[in-house]
Design brief:
The protein has 178 residues and is an alpha/beta fold. It is built from six helices and five strands. A five-stranded parallel beta sheet has the order 2-1-3-4-5, with helices on both faces.
């Protein structure tokens, strides 16, 4: 199984990074991307990808990521909840997914691929991420990805206690999804 794990947090030792590293250890065939380590920008709306039915032509650190991502069996995206949404790094990354649809707007994603979307947040109430998960479900299902979301509430900025408590439950949900 070809797996992409994408950490959208700028904090390399934070809650989202802990989850990404923990999940990465479970898979021998996974790729781990820490978006904060990459130099990239959002979609420039040049439309070359759609006109030529190719992948993104921007020459940055995502140049060699998007095509292999589209061939993945499982994509795991992890982002903290920043003011009721994903991080800027994750948003720019997802904007570049524009090239992952063909000119006729059908998905280039592997048939039967799945997306497991994880949100970490300080708020105890999972409803604080309801807008994010509702938005994400619409976006990722438009790529014909089977979608599942998991919210980890109660994550403090300076503590990994909650993610350490929840990691086994998260892995169980992921195993059931896959």
């Amino acid at each position: 199984m070809n797996i992409f794990i994408v950490n959208g947090s700028p904090r390399i030792n934070g809650n989202s990074a802990f989850i990404a590293k923990s999940l990465f250890k479970n898979y021998t065939d996974a790729t781990l991307l820490n978006l904060s380590d990459l130099n990239y920008k959002g979609c420039q709306s040049c439309y070359i990808c759609r006109e030529k039915n190719t992948y993104c032509v921007i020459n940055d650190d995502l140049k060699n990521v998007l095509e292999p991502l589209s061939k993945s069996d499982l994509i795991i995206l992890i982002s903290p909840n920043y003011y009721g949404f994903i991080t800027g790094q994750m948003k720019l990354f997802l904007d570049r997914w524009y090239c992952l649809k063909k000119a006729n707007r059908t998905s280039k994603m592997k048939n039967g691929a799945k997306l497991f979307f994880i949100i970490t947040q300080g708020a105890q109430n999972r409803d604080h991420a309801s807008f994010i998960t509702s938005w994400a479900k619409k976006v990722f299902e438009s790529f014909n990805l089977k979608f599942y979301s998991y919210i980890v509430p109660g994550c403090k900025t300076n503590s990994l206690d909650m993610v350490k408590i929840k990691i086994d439950d998260l892995k169980m949900h992921l195993k059931m999804f896959v």
